[in-house]
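Can't paste images in this forum, so I'm doing it all in text. The chain is below; anyone willing to post the predicted C-alpha cells underneath?
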Amino acid sequence: MGGPTVYDVAERVGVSIATVSRVYRSPESVRSETRERVLSAARELGYVPSASARGLASRVTGVLGLCFPDFAEPAADDASDAQGTELSLYGDEVIRGMERAARRRGYALLISASPAGRAGESMAEIAGRVDGLALLAQQWPAAELDVVSRRLPLVVLAGQRHPGLDRVEVANFDGQLALTRHLLSEHGRHRLAFLGGPEDSPDAEARFRGFQAALLEEGLEVPERPDTRGDLTLAAGRKAVAELLDRDGPRPQGLVCANDQMAVGALQALAERSIAVPGDMSVTGFDGIPLSGAVSPPLTTVRQPMGRLGEEAVEVLLARLADRTLPVESRTLPTVLVRRASCGCPA
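Text version of the structure:
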C-alpha cells in the first residue's frame, strides 16, 4: 500500500488538490486558516509532497538534500571587495563540502534555503525529492521532523538536538573556551563583552557557555547572559558595538563575538568611531570564514571545519540509507584557534 497522497490530504480537509499544492509552493496565496488545516492534516497522515511520485515510491532518486536557513546578508551586496576576496560565508562552505562528498559517492545535491517562518514547509517539500536529507543550523518543527524521519534518513547539522536523529556538530564550547583563555592569559584582557547570537541558536549558546567557563576559571565575574545579541550578520555586529559604546560605565577591553560576521561588523563600527584594534580594544570571531583573514586587522577566530561538516553529513546519510537499524550517531568535530592581529598577536 502506498503512502498518503495529495488527494488524501485534500479529501481530509475538504479542499482541492490545487489548494494543497499552493500551501507548499506559494503559502502566502492561501488563507492562513486554510493553510494551517492543510499542514495539520498532512502531519496527521504522514504526507510528504513530492515532485516525483515514482522516485518517492522507489526511494531511489540518486539525490541527497540540504535544507538551511536563508543566510541573506543585507550588507553583502554592498560590501567592498578591495582585496578581491570572495565574501564566502558559513553556509557556503558547508554546502560546498556536502556537494563534493555527494559527487564522489555518485549522488547529486539538492539545496533549499528556508525563508523565516517556513522551515517545516521547506523541509517537507524537499524531502519528497531526495533519498536522504541534512538540516542545517535552524529550529525545525518537531511535528514535521517526525513525519519526514519516518520516510527517509535525516541528519541535523550544527543545530538543535532532536532525540532519535543523527547529528554532526563542532566543538563550540571547547573552541570558545580556548579563545577566551587566550585573551585572558596571554593578553590580559579581563574586561570582555560577549556579542551573542539569537537565544534559539544552540551553537551560539554553546559558545557563550565556553566564554563563561573561561571567566569562571580566572575568578572573574560571570555574566548570566551575553552583553548584547544579534542575528549573526555584519549589520548585527555594527549595531551591537553602537549599543555597547553608548552605555554608561567602563569600555570593554575586548569584544568576543559569536561568529565572524558579527566580528567583521564590529571592526567596521569601531573604525568609524576611531577606536583602534587591537590597541584600544581587541575583537575576536568564530567560524574561520575566508573573510576573517582578509579584513584589517586580520581577525583572531576559532576555525571550525565547515566543509567537513557537509562531508560528514553525506557519510552519515549514506550509512543510514544502507542500514536504517544502526544506532543513532552523534559526531563532534574539533576546532582550531587561529591567532591573528585583532587580539594583539603579531600580524
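The chain has three domains: 1-47, 53-170+307-334, 172-304+337-343. The longest helix spans residues 306-322.
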